[in-house]
Amino acid sequence: MPLLQSIVHRLEPSAEGDRLKLHAAPQAHPSSAVMDDLMAAVSDAYNTKPKGWGRFVEGEGASPFSGWLAAYLAGDQDFSQLSHEIGERLCRVLEERLAVGGYLIFGHARQGETETLSLALVHQRHGIGIDDSHTAVPAAQLNLGQLTLAARINLTQWQNAAPEAQYVSFLKDRGGKKLAEAMAELLGMEEGIDAPSETRTLLKAFSDYVEQEDFDDAASREKTDALVGYADEQLRRGEPITLEELSGLVDEQKPKAFFDHIRNADYGLAEEIPPDKRTLNQFRRFTGRAGGVSISFDSHLLGSSIEYDEAQDRLIIKKVPTQLRDQLKRR
């Protein structure tokens, strides 16, 4: 992800913990491999976390954020000015909820034909390192594992004004509600797609499709692996699931079949869906074999069409697969 511009500021809480002060860098960060690696690490951490998605609110009362961004892209102000204005406003909105300090990192990057602006508040932790003389010494390190306040704007989608495009995302973990609220206010956005709900609906549509087509276990497992593999790759890249692209991967012989199934059954899915990591992690298969019995099913079916009675150690299948039911009837 080649960086076009980057800068790092510092947010410092007051002694009382109720105010924040921005210590701004005087100029953009010089190009360096280390900064490239840092922004790539921030991006990797961001991609795997729960997010809210939406777009800028336009009109009266809107946040100045989108105006600052437009001025920067038009060349009316430089990257340092843009980040300084955003940092000052972030201090104010954080003070109203939770005055938390750290290093505020900005990056304007280009990947292929897509440009993005990312911002993240990163905390520093103290550790121990070894110097050139093989001596243990104090060493500070950025704690990317605890990333709780960050956002990314797809500048290309925003400038193209794509209908229904969800070009703004921000971290929205259940443990960081106040931080998420502060970021949403800073960005001046309205939320659109509910990533967990949309991902659940997509997985439901996939399960319905596999059942409707009556694939055998091997084919069903292969298609499940294709879906999960593609979704995991999109998560890693920080990009949405595209239904048409996914459909081609699910069934290469009939690349439009799954897409047509979604449209014909009217699941109400957008053509691009931001994947939700937690929901995808639940979409795995339970398997077991013992005493001549072999059982395999997608984990998300547990609690709906399949139930486990722990007290009686019984597995209850509410909807028997068509092929198995026909065999049982013939028997």
From TrEMBL:
State the UniProt keywords alphabetically: Cytoplasm
Name the UniProt record assigns to this protein: Nucleoid-associated protein YejK
Q: What is the lineage of its organism?
A: Bacteria, Pseudomonadati, Pseudomonadota, Gammaproteobacteria, Oceanospirillales
Which GO terms label this protein's molecular function in UniProt? double-stranded DNA binding; single-stranded RNA binding
Provide one Gene Ontology cellular component. Answer: bacterial nucleoid
Fetch the PANTHER family from UniProt.
Answer: NUCLEOID-ASSOCIATED PROTEIN YEJK, PTHR38772
Q: Which domain of life is it from?
A: Bacteria
Residues in coiled coil: none
Kindly list the places in or outside the cell where this protein is found, as annotated in its UniProt entry: Cytoplasm, Nucleoid
InterPro entries linked: Nucleoid_associated_NdpA
Q: Which family does it belong to?
A: Belongs to the YejK family.
